[in-house]
Amino acid sequence: MTKKFVYAILVVVIIGGTVLSAEERINREAILSAGPEWEENHLNYQVDEELLATLKTKIGETLKIDVYLGLWCRDSKENLPKFIKIMDTLNDSRVEVNYFTCERKADRDVKYFVEELKITHVPTFIFYRDGQEIGRIVENPTKSLIQDMIDIL
């Protein structure tokens, strides 16, 4: 094989890998330490205890939530700290939460942050029960984050 051919294959693999893996795992601590506003939004958010009790009754045997966010995104900065506070206060071992950061789209022609999941906006919260998607909160909640979670469940 020629050097040019090997180089071309390498470029395709690197670019292809980037496109297919546009998200990267992150933990709650890294999210909350992304800047002072993230931690402030977490500390200042007051969880409605009545709605939290309702949420707890709706969980079922197990619940998985995958969250796709942008550390650069204003809506993520607003909603993720609240979600983390809800999860911290809920403190329920039946709930598995995974966080993934997404890079900004390279240009406006790119439709998805994560193509295989059709994620067009961040943050996106995807709720799964028994391996099946049961609902999403995309970008901003309709009512409130906790009420929208209850409505999905």
Which labels suit this protein?
153 residues, alpha+beta, Glutaredoxin, 6 helices, 44% helix, 21% strand, disordered N terminus
Instruction: Report the major sheet.
Output: 5 strands, mixed
Fraction of helical residues: 40-55%
What is the 3D form?
Answer: globular
Radius of gyration: 18 Å
Distance between the termini: 55 Å
Overall pLDDT? 88
- Could you name the CATH homologous superfamily? Glutaredoxin
Q: Total strand count, please?
A: 5
- Side by side, the strands of the main sheet go 1-3-2-4-5
Domain count: 1
Number of helices: 6
CATH topology: Glutaredoxin
**Low confidence ranges:** 3-21
Global structural class: alpha+beta
Measured by DSSP, the beta-strand proportion falls in: 15-25%
- Element-by-element helix/strand order: HEHHHEHEEEH
The protein's oligomeric status is single chain
- CATH architectural grouping: 3-Layer(aba) Sandwich
CATH class bucket: Alpha Beta
